[in-house]
Amino acid sequence: MSPIISVSHLSKTYAGGRVALKDVSLEINKGEIFALLGPNGAGKTTLISIICGIVTPTAGQISAAGHDIIRDYRAARAMIGLVPQELTIDFFESVFATVKLSRGLFGKKPDDAYLESLLRDLALWDRKDSQARTLSGGMKRRLMIAKALSHEPNILFLDEPTAGVDVELRRGMWDLVRKLRAAGTTIILTTHYLEEAEEMADRVGVIRQGELILVEDKKRLMQQLGKKKLTLALSAPLAALPASLHAFALSLSDDGSELTYTYAEDGGTAPVAALLESLNAAGIGIADLRTEQSSLEDIFVGLIGKSS
Question: By the 8 A CB rule, do 12 and 49 touch?
Answer without folding.
Answer: no
